[in-house]
Amino acid sequence: MKTRIICLSVLLLTFGCKKDQRLTLEPTSITGKECSDCPVIQVSIPTALGKTKIDNSVNTALREEVIAILNFDEETAASTIESAISSFSAAYYDLKEKYTDESTTWEAKIEGSLTYEGENILTIKLDSYLFTGGAHGYSTSRFLNFDKKRGRELERSELFKDMDAFQDFAEEKFRLQEQIPETDPINSTGFMFEGDSFYLPQNIGYTQNGLQLFYEQYEVASYADGPITLTVPYIEIEKFMQVPVKQVR
Q: Which of 154, 173, 190 is the last residue of a domain?
């Protein structure tokens, strides 16, 4: 009896370990200096705590994206988020020094969140908002897709077996969602696709509800229209996908 119990425990432990392959992510917050005359800088991103290749890939990609958003000094490339924050602040203070009447306070807010994790794929969405003067700030989102097995970030083209075939399928779904007749030009209802031809957005990412196509403000519509999204259930696109995925329940 004891032998059977031990064997059963080992079996359960083995299967449990195989099933639980999720990365351990911890929220990390980094802010700029707080004062009445300081720019408002808030960075909140997940940090992978493991020591594997995929953990390192996730942390490196997120760090590089945040640096690219905040770094305002092209001559001195920032290597850390803290140095990028200093670069953003220095650009603000330099502007204030040149234009003493400038009263607008700059803002930079960046937040990363896990949108999908399965056996093979992990996706983090990075939302950012920058205000450096003018009529309004600029919001942007960036999907970072990772192949957990190979431990690296995936390029957009690597998501599909045949990107052209998927684009044709996506256009059908887009026209259906936006009520654009099949025989009419893609811009006939007010969209602004360059060349009046449908194309995939730069941002494509995995979510719990399906693969999301995310068009930024200005990418295919006016600023007032905001971002345009199309989310397609995985069951409908299995034949197009390079890496097997499934709906998260």
A: 154
Which H helix or E strand runs over 115?
Answer: strand 107-117
Quick one: 134 and 170 in the same domain?
A: no
Q: What predicted TM-score, i.e. pTM, was given to this entire model?
A: 0.87
pLDDT of the residue at 10: 41
Residues of the chain with pLDDT > 90, as a percent, come to 73
Number of domains making up the chain: 2
Cα distance between residue 235 and residue 131, in whole Å: 40
Which backbone phi and psi does 85 adopt, to 5 degrees? -60, -40
Tokens of 222: 């006016």
C-alpha separations of 214 from 159, 176, 227, 245 in Å:
15, 16, 7, 19
Q: Cα separation of 13 and 23, whole Å?
A: 18
Which ranges constitute the DSSP H helices of the chain?
2-19, 53-70, 81-98, 163-178
